[in-house]
Amino acid sequence: MQKDFFHFKKKFGQNFLKDESIPRKIVEHASILEDSLVIEVGPGSGALTKILVQNAKQVLCYEIDTELEDVLAQQFIGYDNISIIYDDFLKRDVKEDLTRYSYSHLYLIANLPYYITTPIITKVIEDAIPVEKMVVMVQKEVAYRFSAKPGSKDYSSITVFLNYYYDIKNEFEVSRNCFIPKPNVDSMVVSFTRKKELLSVHNLPLFFQLVRDSFRYKRKMLRNNLKNYDLEKVSQVLERYHLDLKVRAEELSLEVFVAISNSLFS
Ligand code: SAM
Q: From the CA of 65, how far away is ligand 1's center (Å)?
């Protein structure tokens, strides 16, 4: 990339990978199967895209910055397995875009723009885009929140939400020195593998509302955060797990949240 002619845009979270070693490692961790379509959010100048086109049947990129159009067009002359949509990923009907392709496996592999990491991952879930595996680079602190275990300080409502759908694993750290311009934070590559079977929840919207309410004031006991719920029922479920209403949300596993939710809502 001709850095002299391109002005990196902070507002788009533009920190580009400097060389091929990290993109190669990311793609290795994805273990892309035959007949796969890979979605990449934010190809930038194509550091990761270059490796993706060599490993996937089809690559579908979304890039918000139209100034990158020429750089990317040059880079992928002669490749017929890449499409780039110049638009805001968050606003796209991705399922509609996908109808143009045939494939057996769907991945999302990206060095995500950090200002919208959670909205991008949440969109995949809420729009029911059938991604079976995501391998994404995110800010290290955010990765700890995604993959946190009950009882740790990073465990929060987003952890429970994401872990309901995906098995989440921190794969490897990436130093801030691997990017241009150099960000103020270090990064982590995280993999999300779609769970084959989801726990049975009677009412999904109310389940996620219950989880959010449970974490409203993190240091408070469940009794206080769930004042407006049927505490008698909550207490009965907690007893089955040898817990009581003095417990804090950060100590409850996904299974306990599901059990509480299913006893409250039908
Ligand atoms: N993949 C490149 C790399 O690893 O070198 C660039 C990664 S950079 C962290 C994030 C990229 O996402 C930028 O190219 C930025 O313009 C793009 N981007 C930011 N917001 C976006 C959005 N809402 N939709 C699509 N692309 C976006």
A: 8
Q: Is the pTM of this model over 0.85?
A: yes
Ligand 1 atom nearest the C-alpha of 9 is 16
Same domain for 148 and 261?
no
Å from CA of 37 to ligand 1 middle = 19
> For 230-249, what is each residue's pLDDT tens digit?
999 999 999 999 999 999 99
Residue nearest to atom 18 of ligand 1 (CA): 42
At 210, which CATH number? 1.10.8.100
Q: Which two tokens stand for residue 136?
A: 């994404």
Listed residues 161, 194, 227: the one ending a domain: 194
Tell me the torsion sign for CA atoms 175, 37, 82, 87.
negative
Domains of the chain: total: 2
β-bridge partners, 214:
none
Same domain, 190 and 209: no
pLDDT tens readout for residues 127-160: 999 999 999 999 999 999 999 999 999 999 999 9
Query: Does one domain contain both 135 and 55?
Result: yes
Pairing of strands 133-139, 187-194: antiparallel
Give ligand 1 pocket residues (Cβ under 6 A): 12-17, 41-44, 47-48, 62-65, 88-90, 111, 113, 116
